[in-house]
Fold this protein.
Amino acid sequence: MITLNQKIVSVKGLFHVFPTEDSPFDFQNLIEIYFGLERGSLLIKCNGSKENLACEFNRELESVSLGEYGAFKIFDVGGLDLFRPLQGETLRDMKKLYDIHGEIGFRLLFRHTLLDLINWGDELLVLQQPNALSGEYFCKQE
């Protein structure tokens, strides 16, 4: 297990890219997100057919060819507006997010901000504003 309280040094995303698309990626097609830390890494991804997300420590992203169905490709997203403020930020804590049906994701708590990662079907939704969807999800104290 990795200890938190480490600075973010990089952020990458694994995206489902279709062969006919002109743009390199679309946040609607985010499958996994990777946070490079000072002494390791944190990978968050959809958890198969379950409604929650899975997290793994010290694991890299992997590109995958899907033939005629496109590919899962890795892109550096650390320079994008959503992730730029996280560069050099310390990841202080990570809490599970729930809705009325159960666990749906994680809240990453940094020194100056937070980030909600939610399972959105077979894609990953990233939100900077807490409860930006509808106020229908919450953190549970464990």
Q: What stands out?
A: The chain is about 0% helix and 50% strand. The chain has a mean pLDDT of 83. Residues 31 and 123 are 5 Å apart (CA to CA). The radius of gyration is 15 Å.
